[in-house]
Amino acid sequence: MDMMATTSPLQSLVAQRDPAALGPVVGAQTWRDLLFLHWAVDADAVQRLLPPGLTAHTFAGRAYVGIVPFAMARVRPRFLPPLPWLSWFLELNVRTYVHDADGVPGVWFHSLDCNQPIAVEIARRAFHLPYEHAIMRAERQGHALRYACQRQGQQGPAWRYAWDTAGPGSPASPGSLEEFLVERYVLYSVDRAGQLYRGRVSHTPYRVHVPRVDQLDIGPATLAGYALDGPPVSVLAAEPVNVSIHPLRRLGTL
């Protein structure tokens, strides 16, 4: 049982892929060039930044904060084709791990920077997610990727990341920290009225490897309210996955 759980045993991460819990598919997209950078933090540091109804999900007594730059491709509603310019863009998110009162583990996003203005507005309105407008770019030379993000209104230089995307990858071992950090198929969000929502995605398990990282920046996590210390305790890159998006549902009506 999770060390922070107070109401019910936590469901397994694998159980999140149960088709009966997912609902219809409303959209599709591909995630690629994923870099997962994670720092261990005290659970109290996470809990103070969470909305009512969510509890910090810990692994061996520690909570984790992640910075995840990646690329989105072929983003579209179900039954519609991807559109040039609109369906390809970059994202950089700051995330942590939580569960609700029912013990369903998931992701809480503190911020999601994005360089597609329409996608930002749709995600804010339809999914109540804290998307931020940003100027972003990614440059590739072979397997080496250089990534930069400048949030709208941000002072100082752009946040920069550089890593080697070459694999091969393999699925995270069951019960491992790597599985805890990457195998997440549930997200939580809150609307302006304070109503909590749960959303689900589905895809094949990530195939991950430990990449060489030449540059990283903790800036977006600092803005989210975290004082990260030292290098990340987990560094993973993932091969592309095709993702199905399922409806967002208000908790209390499930």
Can you walk me through this structure?
By secondary structure, the protein is mainly beta. The chain has one domain (23-250): Beta Barrel (Acetoacetate decarboxylase-like). The chain has 4 helices and 16 strands. It has helices spanning 43-47, 117-127, 177-182, 219-224, and strands spanning 27-32, 34-41, 55-56, 63-77, 89-99, 105-114, 131-141, 144-151, 159-164, 186-190, 196-202, 208-209, 213-215, 234-238, 241-245, 249-250. β5 and β6 (105-114) form a beta hairpin. The longest helix is centred in the middle third of the chain and has 11 residues, at 117-127. It is globular, with a radius of gyration of 17 Å. Mean pLDDT is 92; it is low at 1-7.
Compile the SSE list and pairings.
Layout: E1 27-32, E2 34-41, H1 43-47, E3 55-56, E4 63-77, E5 89-99, E6 105-114, H2 117-127, E7 131-141, E8 144-151, E9 159-164, H3 177-182, E10 186-190, E11 196-202, E12 208-209, E13 213-215, H4 219-224, E14 234-238, E15 241-245, E16 249-250
Parallel strand pairs: 6-7, 6-10
Antiparallel strand pairs: 1-4, 1-15, 2-4, 2-14, 3-5, 4-5, 5-6, 7-8, 8-9, 9-13, 10-11, 11-15, 11-16, 12-14
What key attributes describe this structure?
Acetoacetate decarboxylase-like; 42% strand; mainly beta; globular; 254 residues; 4 helices; seven-stranded mixed beta barrel; 11% helix
Order of helices and strands: EEHEEEEHEEEHEEEEHEEE
CATH superfamily: Acetoacetate decarboxylase-like
Number of domains: 1
The computed structural class is mainly beta
At the third CATH level, what is the topology name?
A: Acetoacetate decarboxylase-like
Q: How far is it from the N-terminal to the C-terminal residue, by CA?
A: 23 Å
Main sheet record:
7 strands, mixed, barrel
Named at the architecture level, the CATH assignment is Beta Barrel
Q: What's the helical proportion of residues?
A: 10-25%
* pLDDT averaged over residues: 92
